[in-house]
Design goal:
This protein is an alpha/beta fold and 766 residues long. It contains 22 helices and 24 strands. The strands form 6 sheets. The chain has a 7-stranded antiparallel sheet. Strand 7 (259-266) and strand 8 (271-279) form a beta hairpin. One of its GO terms (molecular function) is carboxy-lyase activity. This is PABS domain-containing protein. The chain crosses the membrane at residues 76-102.
Length: 766
C-alpha cells in the first residue's frame, strides 16, 4: 500500500507531460485545416485565431485531465483497516515500549553500580520463595482479627540488599497464650479493653548497645524475636516488612492490630533501637524485661565482654481528656511523678523496674536507676558509693515517695527535730511509714520504749521488706537485736486504717491511757489529688483524736509535700494549701514539714541553741556498731535552719485572708499621726553663731505626731535560752539590790513580752 502511493506520486509529473504533448497534434491539425479552407482571411488573423482555439482546447483538456487525476488520487487514499490488524499493531507497539524501558533501566542501573534484582521481581517471588526464610505471624488462640486491606508500594533503593514482606497466616492459629507471666497477662488484658480505638496510646522507645553484631545482621533472628515479643504479650502482628541495608544493618516495621512496632540495627556498633506503640490503656512497662531478654544478646566471643546497656522511655500519646471515658489525670499514675519524671526521661543512664503491681488500695511501682550525671561533682553526693550504686525509688499511685539517695535526708528531717523537741519521748506513733525508714529513725533514740505503726496496706509493707530491705535495716544499730526494724521488740505494726484507728482509740477527750509522746504522720502528701488525703489533713474529728492522743508536752509532726515558693498562691488555696520548709530529699524541690506542740515547754525546746542541740543529739541517739555516724545529714546547725520558716513560707502565709497578726504593717494608736521622714530637714541652726546644725520640720507637724514609726519598728526573735538567762539575771539583781541593772533588765524583759514600747513622741506647739 505504501509502495503504490510512492509510485503514484512519482508518476504524476509524467502524466501531466503526456497530456500536454497529445494536445498539440489536434491543435496543429485544426489550424492547418482552418487556414486552408478560408483563403480570404489574412495570414495574421488566421494565425491568431488558430492560436486562441488551440489554447482553449488545451485548457479544456488539462482541466478534464486534472479532474481525472484528482479523482484517481482520492480513490487511492481511501484505506480500510481490520480490527485484528489494529489489535496486533497495538500489542507490538506496547511490547516494543516495554522492551525499550527495560533496556534503558538496566543501562542506568549498571551505570549506578547496583546489581540487586528488581523489587517487583522480589515481591513477585516472595510468596513462593521468601515466606520460608522469615517467620510468619499467626493468630493467637482466642483472638479475633478483623478483615483488613493491604496496600503497598515498593520504591527501589540501591542501598538495600533485600526487601521482604510477610503477612499474618489467617488460615492457621496457635494456642500460645503468653505463659503464666502475670505481667504479660496484665498487658494483654488491658489491650483487650474497649478503648483500643480511642485516639490515645502508649509509646515505648528502647535503645540497647553492646549487642551481638551477628544477631543484629540476621533478619530471620530479629524477626523471630519481634514475633515472640508480640505473641508473649498477646498483641496481633498483621504484617511486617524488612530491609537488609548496605553495607550492613536491618530495618523492620510491623503493623499491629493495636498499632505498630519497628526497629533498626547498627551491627558495627552493636546498637539497636526499638519503637513500640500501642493504642488503649495497656501498660508497656512489663514489656521491658522481655525486650532485654530477646534483643539484648551479649557478645560472647569478645575478649572483654560487655553487658548490654539499655536506655528507654515511656510516654503517653494522643488525647484523653473529654474523649476517654472516666479518665482522670490525677488518678492515672502515668500522669503523675512516675510517668512524667521517671518513665518519660530518656536521659537516665539505666533504669530497671523492680515491681509494678496494684494492691487492693493503690498502685505500687518500685524502680532502680543509675544516673550519676545528675549529681554535682563538687557536692557531698558525688561519692563512689553513690555514683556506682543504683538508686531506688518507690511510687504510690504515681506519686514519688522517696529515693534511696534522698530517703535519709527526708526521714531524718521528719523524725529528729520533733523527737528532740520532746524532753523524754518514750511512746511514739507512726501513721503510714510502710517503707520502714521512719521506724528506723525513731528506734535510734535511746528513750524510746515502744513504737506503734498504723498502716492500712499490709501488702505494701511486705513488698518493701522484700524489695527495699535497706530502708528498714537495723542490723548496724546499737540497742537493736534484729536485722529488720519491723522485727524489733519495740516495734508494733497495726494494719488498720489510721483514720478510724485514732478516732476509735482517742475520739473521746477523757482518754487517759495509751497516749503518745510523739505522733509522726508519714502518709500521702496533702497537695496531691487523692481522696483519702482530705480525711487525714482536714477532718476535724480526726485532728481532735490526734490531739487527744498526745500526752502532756506531746509533739505532732507531718510532711506537707513541696514547700511554698515566692510566686505560689496563698497558703490554704489551691494545691499549696495545708503546708514549714525543711530538707531537700531528691524529690525535685524542697519539702515542707509541720511541727505542732501541745504546750509551751516543748515549743521552747524547739529553739535550742547549736551547742545545746549538739550535746543532746550525742546523748540521746544510739551509735552504730560499725562506728559510722548515726545520722547522715541531720545535725545541730541543720536544726537551726529549721527553727524559723523561710521568707517564701512567710509570704505564702501572709497572703491568706485570715492572716496572722504578724503579717500586718506595724501601726500605732490611730489618734497619733505618723509623720514621714520627708517632713523633716537638716539645716544650720539660727539661734547663734555656734548653734551648729539640727533637725527641723520642713512642714507643719501636728501635736502628738509619731515620727517615722513605719521604718522604726523591727521584729526580732529571742531564743528561749536567752529569755531564761534574762529571767535569772532579773532575780539575781533583785537579790543583790542593783536598781540600775534591775531597771535595764526589766525594761528589756517587758519589751519581749509586749508590755513596753519605746517610741518617740514629738510635741510641737505651733
Amino acid at each position: 500500500m505504501l509502495f503504490d502511493l510512492w509510485t503514484v506520486r512519482r508518476r504524476m509529473p509524467r502524466l501531466i507531460l503526456d497530456t500536454t504533448t497529445s494536445d498539440k497534434n489536434p491543435g496543429a491539425k485544426s489550424r492547418s485545416g482552418s487556414l486552408g479552407s478560408d483563403p480570404s482571411t489574412s495570414a495574421e488573423d488566421a494565425a491568431s485565431a488558430g492560436f486562441t482555439s488551440s489554447l482553449d482546447n488545451i485548457s479544456s483538456s488539462c482541466v478534464e485531465r486534472a479532474l481525472d487525476i484528482a479523482g484517481m488520487f482520492q480513490r487511492l487514499f481511501i484505506i480500510t483497516v481490520s480490527a485484528s490488524l489494529f489489535v496486533v499493531t497495538l500489542v507490538i507497539v506496547a511490547a516494543l515500549a516495554f522492551f525499550v524501558g527495560i533496556v534503558t533501566r538496566l543501562v542506568l542501573v549498571g551505570m549506578m553500580g547496583a546489581n540487586a534484582p528488581h523489587p517487583t521481581q522480589v515481591v513477585t517471588d516472595l510468596v513462593a520463595t521468601t515466606v520460608g526464610l522469615l517467620p510468619t505471624p499467626v493468630i493467637l488462640g482466642g483472638k479475633e482479627v478483623p478483615p483488613t486491606k493491604y496496600t503497598s508500594r515498593t520504591f527501589w533503593q540501591g542501598g538495600a540488599l533485600t526487601s521482604q514482606t510477610v503477612h499474618i497466616d489467617r488460615a492457621g492459629s496457635t494456642s500460645y497464650d503468653g505463659g503464666e507471666d502475670d505481667a504479660a497477662n496484665e498487658v494483654a488484658a488491658q489491650h483487650d479493653d474497649g478503648d483500643m480505638h480511642l485516639p490515645s496510646g502508649q509509646h515505648l522507645l528502647v535503645d540497647i548497645k553492646h549487642v551481638d553484631p551477628d544477631f543484629l545482621f540476621s533478619e530471620e533472628r530479629l524477626a523471630s524475636a519481634m514475633i515472640e515479643l508480640v505473641n508473649e504479650f498477646r498483641l496481633t502482628l498483621l504484617s511486617y516488612h524488612c530491609h537488609s541495608l548496605v553495607p550492613m544493618g536491618v530495618s523492620c516495621a510491623g503493623v499491629l492490630l493495636e498499632s505498630n512496632v519497628a526497629f533498626h540495627t547498627w551491627p558495627k556498633h552493636g546498637v539497636i533501637t526499638i519503637d513500640l506503640f500501642t493504642c488503649g490503656a495497656g501498660l508497656l512497662m512489663p514489656v521491658i524485661p522481655t525486650i532485654r531478654r530477646l534483643f539484648g544478646l551479649p557478645v560472647l566471643d569478645s575478649p572483654l565482654p560487655l553487658e548490654p546497656l539499655m536506655k528507654w522511655s515511656h510516654k503517653l500519646r494522643g488525647f484523653r481528656e473529654d474523649i476517654s471515658p472516666g479518665d482522670n489525670p490525677h488518678e492515672n499514675p502515668l500522669e503523675q511523678d512516675f510517668g512524667l519524671d521517671n518513665l518519660a526521661n530518656h536521659d537516665i543512664a539505666s533504669k530497671h523496674p523492680l515491681l509494678s503491681k496494684r494492691t487492693a488500695l493503690q498502685y505500687v511501682d518500685m524502680f532502680e536507676w543509675h544516673n550519676p550525671s545528675k549529681l554535682n561533682p563538687e557536692s557531698y553526693e558525688y561519692l563512689p558509693e553513690t555514683t556506682s550504686k543504683l538508686d531506688e525509688g518507690i511510687y504510690l499511685d504515681g506519686v514519688q515517695q522517696r529515693s534511696l539517695y534522698g530517703e535519709a535526708a527526708h526521714h531524718e528531717a521528719l523524725v529528729h527535730p520533733g523527737m528532740l523537741a520532746h524532753p523524754n519521748p518514750k511512746r511514739v506513733a507512726i501513721i503510714g511509714g510502710g517503707k520502714g525508714a521512719t521506724l528506723r529513725e525513731v528506734l535510734k533514740h535511746k528513750t524510746v520504749e515502744s513504737v506503734t505503726m498504723v498502716k492500712i496496706d499490709e501488702e505494701l509493707v511486705k513488698m518493701c521488706r522484700e524489695h527495699l530491705p535497706e530502708w528498714s535495716d537495723c542490723s548496724d544499730m546499737e540497742g537493736s537485736e534484729t536485722d529488720s526494724c519491723f522485727d524489733d521488740s519495740r516495734a508494733f505494726v497495726e494494719f488498720f486504717d489510721a483514720f478510724g484507728w485514732f478516732i476509735e482509740c482517742f475520739g473521746k477527750e477523757d482518754i487517759k491511757e495509751g497516749k503518745f509522746d510523739v505522733i509522726i504522720m508519714d502518709a500521702l502528701d496533702p497537695d496531691k489529688f487523692i481522696a483519702i488525703v482530705g480525711s487525714l489533713y482536714k477532718d476535724d474529728v480526726f485532728i481532735n483524736a490526734l490531739y487527744n492522743g498526745l500526752s502532756d508536752g506531746g509533739v505532732f509532726v507531718a510532711h506537707l509535700g513541696d514547700t511554698d515558693k515566692l510566686n505560689d498562691t496563698a497558703a490554704g488555696v489551691g494545691p499549696g494549701k495545708d503546708k514549714k520548709n525543711m530538707g531537700h530529699s531528691h524529690l525535685g524541690s524542697p519539702w515542707a514539714y509541720l511541727v505542732c506542740f501541745k504546750d509551751y515547754k516543748s515549743r521552747a525546746r524547739w529553739y535550742k541553741a547549736v551547742p545545746e542541740l549538739a550535746i543532746e543529739i550525742h546523748q540521746r541517739l544510739n551509735e552504730r556498731k560499725s562506728g559510722r555516724s548515726t545520722l547522715v545529714y541531720f545535725d545541730a546547725p541543720t536544726m537551726m535552719g529549721y527553727q524559723l520558716p523561710s521568707k517564701a513560707q512567710e509570704t505564702a502565709q501572709c497572703r491568706r485572708e485570715d492572716k496572722q497578726e504578724e503579717c500586718y504593717e506595724p501601726l500605732m494608736d490611730p489618734e497619733f499621726v505618723n509623720v514621714p521622714v520627708s517632713h523633716l530637714k537638716v539645716e544650720k541652726s539660727s539661734i547663734g553663731e555656734f548653734g551648729g546644725r539640727g533637725l527641723f520640720a520642713a512642714q507643719d507637724i501636728s501635736k502628738n505626731a509619731i515620727l517615722a514609726v513605719d521604718g522604726s519598728i523591727k521584729s526580732f526573735h529571742v531564743l528561749p535560752c536567752s529569755v531564761s538567762v534574762l529571767e535569772n539575771l532579773k532575780e539575781l539583781v533583785q537579790e543583790s539590790n542593783l536598781p540600775f541593772v534591775e531597771s535595764k533588765a526589766s525594761r528589756f524583759y517587758n519589751f519581749m513580752e509586749g508590755n513596753y514600747v519605746n517610741c518617740l513622741l514629738l510635741e510641737l506647739i505651733l
